[in-house]
Amino acid sequence: MRVVTRFAPSPTGFVHVGSHRTALYNYLFARQQGGKFILRIEDTDQKRYVKGAVENLLSSLRRLGIDYDAGPGKEDEKGPYFQSRRITVYRKAVDQLLQKRDAYRCFCTTERLEELRKNQMAQKLPPAYDGRCRELSQEESDRRARQEAFVIRLKTPREGNCVFRDIVRGDVEIAWSQIDDQVLMKSDGFPTYHLANVVDDHFMEVTHIIRGEEWLPSVPKHLHLYRCFGWNPPQMAHLPLLLNPDRSKLSKRQGDVAIEDYLKKGYVPEALNNFLALLGWNPGEKNEIYSMEELIRAFDINRIVKAGAVFDLQKLNWMNGQYIRSMENGRYLKEARQWVDAGLRDNPKIETALFAVKTAVNTFAEIPEKLRIFREAPRSADEEARKMLEDASVAQVFTEFLLELEKVPEIDEAIFKCIMKKIQEKSGIKGKQLWMPLRIALTGEMHGPELGYIVEYLGKAETSERLKGHLNK
Predict the structure, then answer these.
(1) Do 467 and 378 share a structural domain?
(2) Among 139, 186, 198, 379, which is most buried by a count of CB atoms within 10 Å?
(3) Is 264 tagged catalytic?
(4) Domain boundary at 305, 326, 347, which?
(5) Residue 272, domain CATH
(6) Residue 440 has pLDDT above 70, yes or no
(7) How far is it, in rounded angstroms, from Cα 290 to Cα 308?
(8) CA-angle at 227, arms to 224 and 229, nearest 5°
(9) Which of 92, 100, 118, 252 is catalytic?
(10) How would residue 320 be classed by pLDDT, with cut points 50, 70 and 90?
C-alpha cells in the first residue's frame, strides 16, 4: 500500500504555525515512506472565505520548501484541489446516504435551533440537536422538501461507544451519546467539512490522516460515515496542541502565531521547519539541527508524543541564529541586505559590516540595531566598561596597536588578527584584557559584532583616531 497523506486547510486567513506543523508532518511522513502528499483547499464555507488566503498559503508552503503532489491516478492534475469545485461528488454521496436512511432532512429553523441551544446551556447540558426531524416518514420529508428549506444530517448511533485506534493516542473510546447528528449538507447545497473530508479522503486514496487533536471528537462521525458508505477508513494520528509558556493554547492574543509573521521578522524557513518538527515529535537523539532531507530520513510517525508542546521563542531564536551563522555567504548577504537601513545601503563597505554582525544576530530583523555602531559615533561607555579602560595594561595595548597600525597602508580583518597576535606575544596580555578595551574604545560597548570586521569597516584612519582619543584622556 502506497502512503498518501494530505493537508486540507480552509482559506480563512493567515497560516497558523500549528497548521504549518500539520502540513510539515504530513509532508515528512509521505516523503519518508516514498508516498504522495496532497494539498486540498476546504473552501465550501463561502462565508468564512478570505480573499488572498489561498495565495498566501501557497506562498508560505513554497517559501518553506513544502511541495505537494498530484493525487493517485491524477498525475496530470497536480492540484491543489478545491472542494468548491467538487460539489457534484458530494451531492451524489449525500443522496446515497438518504436512500439508505443513514441521513435525513432536517427542517428546523435557525430560530428553533438557537432556542434549543439556549435552553440546553441553561440546564448545563452540552448543546446538541435533539433529533426532532430524525424519524420523519419518507413521505412527510419529501413533501416538506418541496416547500421548506432544509439541511441534511447524519443519523448517528444512539447507544454504545465508538472505539478506534489512534497512532499517537492508542485506543480511544467515545460514547455515541456525546456525538451530535452532524449536518452534512447545508441549505445552500454546500457540504460541511465532515462530509467533504470523508468523501475526498476516500476518492483521493488517503491512507493516513495526520491532523490536530482538536479534531479527535469528530472521529466517531467520520468513522460512522465510512461505515455507511462501506469504505475502509484511513489510519489516524492526532497531533498535540502547541502551547504558550503558561501552558495555555497558543493564540494570537499572546504573540505571533502566523507563519507569515515569522518570515516577515527575519526567521529562516529552514529554522522554522526544524523548530516546528521538534514540537511534538521526538527523534530519539540529542541532535537538534536538521536539514529537510535529514528530517525526512529521521521522521517516525510512531514517535509523535501526546503531550502539548510549548512554543519556546527563545529556543526558536537560538535555532534561527544557528542557521544564519552557518548560512553560505552569498545567500546571507542577499537576505541581510534587505534589512539594511537606507543610510548604510549604498556604503561600499556594507558587506564588511554585514559579515561583522553575522555571528551576533538571531534573526535578520536584528540587523538594523546591530549595524548601529557602523552609522553612529561610539556611545559613552557605562561604568563597568569605563573601569576596564582604566586598567594599566590598556595604554600598552593601545600604544602597541597604533605602532603596528602605522606599518600597514590599510587594515582589514586578516591584518587585524595578525596585529593582535603580535601584541599578545609581545606583551603577554591576552583574553578579555586584550580584546575588550579595544572594543569599548572603538564602539562604546563591551559586546557586539566581530571586532576584526569593525576595524576593517572603520579603516585605518578612523580606528587610529578613536584609539588616540582614549589615550589622550
Answers:
(1) yes
(2) 198
(3) no
(4) 326
(5) 3.40.50.620
(6) yes
(7) 22
(8) 110
(9) 252
(10) very high
